[in-house]
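Quick question, first post here. What does this chain look like in 3D?
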Amino acid sequence: MSEEVLIKFLKAGLIPVGGDDAKLLKLQEAASDLSVALLKAPSKASAFALVAFDPEAPAKDPTVQEGLAALQHRWTTYANTFSGPPVTVVRAMLLDALYQAAAKNEHIGVAFVASARNVLPYTESGNERGIWIDTVGEIERAVDARAEAEWATPDSITVAAMEYEKPAAIKVGGAAATVDKAALTKKFEAAAGPQSQGPQGNVATNGNPQWAHSNPQHWVYEFGTRMAAAVAEAIETASKKTAVESIDFSQPLLGLAQAVSTHVDATLSAFSGATAGLQRRTNLLWWKEALYSPSARTSYRDLTPANAVALMALDLHRQVPVFSPASVASFLHETVLSLPEFHRDDELTLVELVRDARMTDALGPLREAAAALIAAPTGRGPILGLIGHGGAVAAIDDSDLFRDWVGVRADTPLTLANWATWLFRELQAARATTLVPASKSRAKKS
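> Answer (accepted):
Ran it through. Tokens below.
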């Protein structure tokens, strides 16, 4: 596709290389160099796109100059082929570079698509329009596919079985219990009376001094005491021989606890990931019904319509991730239309809207966010650059300068709903390419 972009410009008669394949190859090499530069600095994506979209892009713009430098590096004598600065050729190279970079870093794709949806409807692209439609459409499909996947809620959640390695079996053993019958017999005899009849005749037991028939009460006492002592001693002796050392179950139990904890964490993570899209939609519905601005800490109803819609764009941007379906911008559009006392067909010029965003106290949060996401503009770039860096760009009332800055005429009329979606897309694009690092590993593999 990277070759097809330039070839489409060639077929449209926009790249006058006279059918020279060697010259076309130099253009392709220069476009690849620009793609590498863009992957290293994704924040340039919006500027690349806004210049590439505009047939009237000024030759003095820094992005055009960067393109000319890339062309000069690959084609030293290019100036002999063109009567002036070949801005159209540079624009074709920028589009080619954007396509290549977006295929390797989807964050660049977000910025490219957002810029296209904002600016292309107001750009006189002439016979280039078909090229833009094809290229933008292909990148947008890839970006939307990822966004839809991240917002999807599956019908079921599959969790892997718990992984647990059972401990080795514990062996418990001890000596067999034995009782010295001869000794126990003598003790029983001693408990029964003073004498016992043995093979050698009467034998003193040295035990119970009483006979049961002569003094029953005393005999019972002596018998019970001595019998209990004899039995207890026999049992204790046997118990000592069969005693088992204490067993430490702490390690097996700790392993089981860790396995259960890991499994529960994985289950909760799977559930959270599967329901994230549903949670986002629920939060957005709550926001739409509440009509409350977290940024301004007040109801949108208490703000002027122009201020309300600008803060709506900022507040929605802060609620959703970088990769959001195209329907999210439509959701914002419909939320704006739900404001009371709102006239959907009322329009303001683009320069009026920018001036209001730069000066109104209520839009301080928007200016702060814009300044944090986008550097002060030095050439063609997002409107947020003008909003966040008013001190650096003061002359927005000059219509020619305004168009050079943003690529759209200052008197372009916008409804407030369209202004809100414009700001939202720029905020998403800025975050995608400024706060998220380039995907270096993917760039190397592709």
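Confidence is low (pLDDT under 50) at residues 438-446.
The beta strands are 195-198, 201-204, 292-293, 298-299, 347-349, 413-415.
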